[in-house]
Design goal:
The longest helix has 15 residues. Helix 3 links the parallel strand 2 and strand 3. Strands 3-2-1-4-5-7-6-8 form an eight-stranded mixed sheet, sandwiched between helices. It is of the alpha/beta class and 245 residues long. The protein has seven helices and eight strands.
Length: 245
């Protein structure tokens, strides 16, 4: 998956890369070993919330620098620090809420805003992740777009148990055109979805305040925040006849 992410990044020169959710540094080792003829080797900084995983990385004597950090609190780097970013099997955990005070939307916003700021203009990020469902998938891609990224979702081997989803993000590139990257062209068993276009078309649907669709959407938002709401019924949003005494 790391090699696939590198392919999608299309780096043709040695770059400074942030590895989000680096774990024991397996992805970092691949970044450090890229052949010069393929644009490497790359320098990397790894972030992870697990001290024990970072300890394993230290014992393995990886070449990158390591940072113990919760990505849901943002990225503590200067603007424009990195040429690129990768994340393997990590960002879906931002959608988990351990308490009612923790909002997945807030953690996603902190992460993507920080990631956007830390990448140079023209930089790119590739995040492989496992969304629990389409709602979680849209929540993640929507948060990236709101942060300012041009975004697209690429799915390898769609409809199979080997399916892998990659969120491909660009900084300062405007719309994601046609193929997300040149390497996607003519590939088999790959689906490309333009998250920005999908979000815009969905936003064109205007819901009348107080309508059933509006009420259901508000209830879903409250449920995502851990609130307890009453179940919808056939009477939800129905206009009530006024009775005059």
């Amino acid at each position: 998956m790391t090699l696939r992410a590198l392919e999608l990044l299309e780096l043709d020169f040695p770059s400074l890369i942030v590895d989000v959710g680096c774990g024991s540094g397996l992805s970092g080792e691949i970044l450090s070993s890229v052949n010069p003829t393929d644009g490497g080797p790359h320098t990397w900084i790894g972030m992870d919330i697990s001290a024990s995983m970072l300890d394993v990385a230290l014992q393995r004597d990886v070449q990158g620098d390591l940072l113990l950090s919760d990505i849901g609190q943002g990225l503590p780097f200067r603007p424009g620090t990195f040429d690129a970013a990768i994340s393997i099997s990590t960002i879906q955990w931002l959608c988990n809420a351990d308490t009612s005070e923790v909002e997945p939307q807030g953690r996603l916003a902190m992460f993507f805003n920080g990631l956007y700021a830390s990448l140079r203009r023209g930089g790119r990020a590739v995040c492989q992740f496992y969304p629990k469902n389409s709602i979680q998938r849209d929540m993640i891609s929507g948060a990236a777009i709101k942060a300012g990224f041009g975004a697209g979702i690429l799915e390898d081997d769609p409809g199979t148990k080997n399916s892998k989803i990659y969120l491909v993000l660009t900084v300062g590139g405007g719309e994601v055109q046609g193929d997300i990257t040149g390497v996607v062209k003519n590939m088999r068993d790959v689906n490309v979805e333009h998250a920005r276009r999908h979000t815009r078309s969905a936003s064109n649907t205007v819901e009348k305040k107080g309508s059933k669709a509006w009420i259901v959407r508000k209830k879903q938002q409250m449920e995502k925040r851990g609130k307890v709401v009453k179940a919808s019924s056939k009477y939800t949003g129905r206009s009530r006849r006024r009775v005059v005494f």
